[in-house]
Amino acid sequence: MLTAKNKQGSYVSLYNIMTKEKLLEMKKEETFYCPCCETEVTIKAGNIKIPHFAHIRNFSCNASSESESEYHLLGKTKLYQWLIYKQYPAFLEAYIPEIRQRADILLIADSQKYAIEFQSSTISEEDFIRRTNAYRSQGIIPIWILAERNINKIGQNMFSLRNFDWMFLSGTEDSPAIIAFCPYKSRITKLEKVFPFSPRTVFAYQSFATLPSIPFESLFHQSSHRLPYLSLWRDKRRSWSFHSAKTAKITQPFFRFLYVNRISPVTLPPEVGVPIAGMHLVETASIKWQAYVFIDTLYRKAQGQTLSMNECIHSYSSRIKNGDIRLRKLSLLDKKNYLYPLINYVWFFRKTGYIEEYNSGYFKVMKKVVIPKTYDQWLELEKEFYYRHQKLLQEDK
C-alpha cells in the first residue's frame, strides 16, 4: 500500500517521496498504521518495488488481502498522478468503511464518485462481483482496469481472452470495451468492437492513448469504426469448416446434433457463424449457438411458411436451459438483455431477405438457405454470400 496513517490520524502517502534518505528518516522517527485494519505497518524501500507500506506481522487485512507487485504499485500511482494533473478530486487508496473496502483510487467527477481498480493479479469471479456490487451499493461507479500485460494478442485484430479477462468488459451492450493500462509505457489500451469467435478467441479493434493526452471521460467514449476485420473473421470461419472436417466426432453433442439433422460441419451454410451485435453476451462459440437457433427454426421452415420471434426465443431459451448455449455474466455492463444477440441474428435474416416481417414479431419465409452438398459448393456459396452482404456485415454495430 502507498498510504497509511500516522499517530495523529493524518494520512501519509509515499508516492511522491523521492529520496531514500527521507524514507529512512520517516521510518525511524514515525509510527504508521493501516487505514483499514488499524494495525501497525512499516515502510519498505528496497531496490525492487517502489516504496510502500506493509503490515509488520503476517496480518490478514480485510480490505487488502492481495500482495502488491511493483507493476501494480506503479500502475495505481501513475493513474492517480494523471487524475491529479487533470485536476480531479482524487484520493489514493481511499478506505470506504461502510463496505470495509479500499479502492486503488477514489475520485469525484460531476458530483459522481468513481472507484478505479487497477488489477494486475488474477482474482476469483466471486471476489470481482462482490467488490463491484459493494461499490454500487454506495452509489460508487466501479471502473476496473486490466493490466495491459494480460492482453494476449494472437494475430491481427485477434486476441485470446481468459475468463478473468472477460470480467473487465464494460460499457453498454451496444458498445462494450475492455480498458487496460501499462504503467511502464503510461498508456491506456482499449479493446473495442469485441466479437467472440469462440469462448476464448475474439476479434477486436485495439487503440492506444498516452495518459497526459486524454481526459478521464475518454474511458467511457467508444469509437465508431466500421468492423475492420471482416476478412479475418471470414478466414477464421473458413478454417473452422476445413478443420472440423478432420476432427469432428459423432460423440460430441454439437456434431451429433448436426448429424441427426443431416448437416455436415464442413458444409454448414455461411449464414451460420456471422458477426452480429451483442454476441459478447454468449460464451458458446458463435457458430454453435447460431447453428442451434438456425436449425431449430428457419431450417425447418418451407418457403412461404410463418416464423415467429417467439419460436426463436423458445429455441434459444431452451438451449440455454439445457446447457447447449452458455451465457457470460459480465457484471460491469450497464445493462444485459441476453435476448439481444438472438434478436440481432433474426434481424440479420430479415435484412438479407430470407424472411420478411408482415406483422410485429411474425415473419414469412421468402427463400430457403441453401445447404451445400460438397465443400466445393460451400466455397462458392460462401464467396457469393460475403460478396452480397459485405456492407451489411461491416456496418457499425
Low-confidence stretches: none
- Helix-strand makeup class: alpha+beta
> What would the average pLDDT be, to the nearest integer?
88
Taken in chain order, the helices and strands follow as: EEHEEEHEEEHEEEHEEEEHHHEHHEEH
CA gyration radius, whole angstroms? 26 Å
E-strand count: 18
User: Structurally, how many domains make up the residues?
Assistant: 3
User: Strand fraction band?
Assistant: 15-25%
Q: Helix share of residues?
A: 25-40%
Pfam family, one: CoiA_N
InterPro entries: CoiA-like_N (IPR057253), CoiA_C (IPR057252), CoiA_nuc (IPR010330), Competence-induced_CoiA (IPR021176)
Protein name: Competence protein CoiA
Organism: Peribacillus cavernae
Features:
alpha+beta; Competence protein CoiA; 18 strands; CoiA_C; Competence-induced_CoiA; 397 residues; Trna Endonuclease, Chain: A, domain 1
Quick take:
The chain has 397 residues and is α+β, with helices and mostly antiparallel strands. The chain has helices at residues 20-29, 70-85, 125-137, 163-166, 230-247, 253-260, 286-296, 309-322, 340-351, 375-394, and strands at 3-5, 11-13, 32-33, 40-44, 52-55, 90-96, 101-109, 112-119, 141-147, 152-155, 158-160, 169-171, 176-182, 187-196, 201-210, 306-308, 355-359, 362-365.
